[in-house]
Amino acid sequence: MAMSEPAVLTCDLTKIFGGQTAVDGLDLEVPRGSVFALLGPNGAGKTTTIKLLLNLLQPTAGEIRVLGLDAVKDSVAVRRKVGYQAETQRFYPRVRVEELFCLCRSLYPRWNTERVTRYCRIFELPPHARVGELSKGKLTLLALVLAVGPEPELLLLDEPGTGLDPLRRRQVLQLLVEEMAGGDRTIIISSHQLQDVERIADRVGFLFRGKLILSRPLEQLLGEEKKVRVLFPGSPPADLPGWPGVRRVTREGSHLLISLSGHLDEVLGRLNRCEGVAFEVLDQTLEDVFVEYAAGEEASRDVVEHD
Ligand code: ATP
Questions:
Q1: Is residue 296 situated within a structural domain?
Q2: Which of 52, 53, 71, 206 has the fewest CB atoms within 10 Å, i.e. is most exposed?
Q3: What are the pLDDT digits (tens) for 5-57?
Q4: Residues 194 and 269 in one domain
Q5: Upper half-sphere CA count for residue 89 (Cβ side, 13 Å)
Q6: CA–centroid distance, residue 140 to ligand 1 (Å)
Q7: What are phi and psi of 271, to 5 degrees?
Q8: Domain-located, residue 214
Q9: Is the CB of 83 under 6 A from ligand 1?
């Protein structure tokens, strides 16, 4: 039964620190085999969410199921099946890389020595080095190797690009996605590097102020989110902001930029019926779409605050 459950399923998950709501009624579903990117601005609640999945933090309210298990009641069993690369690394500085591997190997039911050795070679991680001697990027790589060692069914990556140069970032993410996702293996990644995410994720979730405002396959999102740059010979139709799918209308010099969520054909049909109008449809990157949603969230917050 548990095998058919999603890798992660949360219901009304809430975490409040003091008076501060970090995660706010989160209903998150991550299908098995997917590479799911959890995206959001600083302080949105990404790290808190990831820590809740591992019971490193206890929820204030709500339910969390990870790999078919209750993340709170079965936390030990969950920890054995999940690999976790934390946002910040805290290792005892005098311990050697190879000693850390030995220690971690003893903590998990499974340990893939071949993979760990191979990744160390590829990432140029010296086994005899003391952890305190490693650069920031090498510390991230060490944390990634430790996270894949136990052959996890679920890999949680919190800012895996920290300290890595662009070439290395690409190499590492490509390797992880090829070897650690698909079939029954799932990756959840939190990152501000949206170009990287666009390359590897198959689903994305946008988290703003602890709320999941969108969760969709990436291909579908990029297929639906478009901009149309329009030049109206006279005044634009007064009801333009209310047209189906229109999220925002902004001015760009003499043109208007219409941000659309779906309904492209219908909007183009309406534009075609406006006399003398010229327009072009612009594709958007994931970063463009994210910025668009962030702007929308800011605008709605301003409205609420001014009410
Ligand atoms: P970033 O992209 O900057 O890493 P994030 O999306 O991972 O941000 P979190 O670290 O989850 O965000 O923080 C969410 C909110 O919870 C923030 O307002 C943060 O200040 C608060 N918070 C996180 N951990 C704690 C804690 N231990 N005690 C009090 N508040 C906390």
A1: yes
A2: 206
A3: 999 999 999 999 998 999 999 999 999 999 999 999 999 999 999 999 999 99
A4: no
A5: 26
A6: 20
A7: -65, -40
A8: no
A9: no
